[in-house]
Amino acid sequence: MAQWIGSMVSIKCCEELGTFQGEICEANQNKITLTKAFCDGFPCQGQVQIRAADIVDIKFIEKTVEEQQEHSIVTIAKPIPKRAARSHSTSEASGSKQQSHNGVLNKTKPIDIDLSKRFEESVNLSFKNNTPNRKGGQKGGKQWSKSWKDEECFGSPLDHRVKRDFDFEKNLALFDKQAIWEELNSQRPDVVRNVENRKKYRHDENVIASQPISTRQIIVPKQEFNEYVTDDGLIIPCISKSLRKRLFEAAEKAGLTCDKHLELFGTAAAEIAIQLIGGGHRLNPNNMHQLPTVVVLCGPHKQGAAGINTARQLTSHGVRTIVFCVSLESGIIKKELSLYMLTRNRTVTIVPELPSNTDLIICALSDTDAEAPKGYPQLAEWVNKNKAPVLALDPPSCGTPGIFPKISLLPVLPLPHSSVNGQLYLTNLGVPVDIFNEVGIKYKSPFGPKNTISLHPHE
User: Fold this and answer.
1) If pLDDT is split at 50, 70 and 90, which confidence band does 222 have?
2) How far is CA 405 from CA 176, 188, 317, 380, in A?
3) I need a surface site. Which of 17, 179, 315, 413 has the fewest CB within 10 A?
4) Please, which pLDDT band fits residue 135 given cuts at 50, 70 and 90?
């Protein structure tokens, strides 16, 4: 066993232990002790003892020359510059020692490096050394000069080899930039060349087209009016008053009553109103002293009932509301107003009782189904004196007389609206597709994950 001490081995043990590599420092019939050991590639701390019963296979590894030499210390002496009397530069070999594997220190002769061939390659460059001279200076008893520093660096002065400056203009004239540029352009694909021919945009212009590709998935029986397009590029056609009336009557007959319409429409109107008054910043529970105020102007019809429904839903979010009713005789107004009164918010019937300032005005004064919308000059004058934005609920196509809303909310499908109604938004009332088919409209919902989408004129 003693003859294997100092040998490198690889010992494969059972699966639980793995494979060990290391140098044998002790061995007998019962166990083997390894030093500098590794287990499956990871170094082990200290010595490792392996029992003979755990050994599956053992292989001996030959040591390389580098492994046999433990340490080598080489001291490189400063080279002596090459002189005219010498054919090569030498190094002083003072104190250069190397320790071999047997521990004996031997002096080594410094390696002579022949710089003549490398020097010949370096001086072929056509550059002149422009290092400034320090003539007249003394350093260690030597006279400073340009050639002295070259001799210190390269072993030989350079003045006799570099005698002229590099001519940049002459060499640049040999380079035909235009010809090479044309050759590169001819090798590029058409896609790259087409990109360069595109319009150059200013810093305030859009690089990407502002309008997406349009898709038509709603078809009406007779296209007589203009169309709108959503932000996603879906075309929304306009319908006539008669077709819209037939659509609502079919929905009422199927069970989608006016009360359900008002609740859905009021929810959508309340969501837009909350965004117009500041959203969560104004409705923070910790800002009770800054709660916004919304004034709702309601006429004696279905649109007015939608305004009262919106006011009731806004109060559930903590908004102060004031409802102005033109008339209290309508049955649909009485029904919605009875629920609104339970919120303990104000109701007024004369213009002087309206506040001089408010955060938002919701206008539901005109009946969309009427032939000519009725005007309210005193209310229009009050609205125009306020700086608050106006949200119109299902206004007539020609707008509400004297009132110019910022946003108009429309149900189901739009009428051909005038630009006086501001930005148009379309809300989803959950009308089933069979009801659309019943009135001759091929319909596929454009709302996607939203209940309200914006409309833009389709060019």
Assistant:
1) confident
2) 66, 55, 23, 11
3) 179
4) very low
Q: Is 274 within 8 Å of 314 (Cβ atoms)? A: yes
111-125, 185-199, 291-305: which range is least confident on average? 111-125
Burial profile 146-176: b = 16 or more Cβ within 10 angstroms, e = fewer: bebbbbeebbbebeeebeeeeeeeeeeeeee
Residue 454's closest CA among 273, 272, 254?
Answer: 272
Which H/E stretch holds residue 24? strand 19-27
Assign 3-state DSSP to the chain and report helix, strand, coil percentages, each to 5.
Answer: 30, 20, 50
Spatial contact of 230 and 447, defined as CB atoms under 8 Å apart: no
Q: Cα(388)–Cα(293) distance, rounded to whole angstroms?
A: 10
What is the token pair recorded at 21? 């590599």
Of 318, 317, 427, 415, nearest in space to 366 by CA: 415
| pLDDT of res. 12 | 85
- Centre a 10 Å sphere on the Cβ of residue 9 and count the other Cβ atoms it contains: 19
Q: Specify the amino acid at residue 399.
A: G
Closest CA to 110 of 100, 97, 120: 97
d(C-alpha 261, C-alpha 263), whole Å: 6
CB 445 within 8 A of CB 428: yes
Contact yes or no for 32/20 (Cβ under 8 A): no
- Cα gap 364→393, rounded to integer Å: 5
> How far apart are alpha carbons 373 and 173 in whole angstroms?
82
What's the CA angle centered on 201, arms 198 and 204, to 5 degrees? 160
Instruction: Report d(CA 338, CA 124) in Å as an integer.
Output: 103
Residue 66 near residue 56 (C-beta atoms within 8 A): no
How much of the chain, in percent, has pLDDT values that exceed 70?
72
Rounded Cα gap, residues 166 and 160, in angstroms:
16
For residue 99, give the DSSP letter.
E
**What CA–CA distance (Å, rounded) separates 22 from 50?**
11
Kindly state the helix (H) or strand (E) to which residue 391 belongs, with its residue range.
strand 390-393
Determine the length of the chain: 459
Phi, psi for residue 83 in degrees, rounded to 5: -115, 170
pLDDT at 194 over 70: no
By the 8 A CB rule, do 355 and 331 touch?
A: no
Q: How would you classify the pairing of strands 79-80 and 90-91?
A: antiparallel
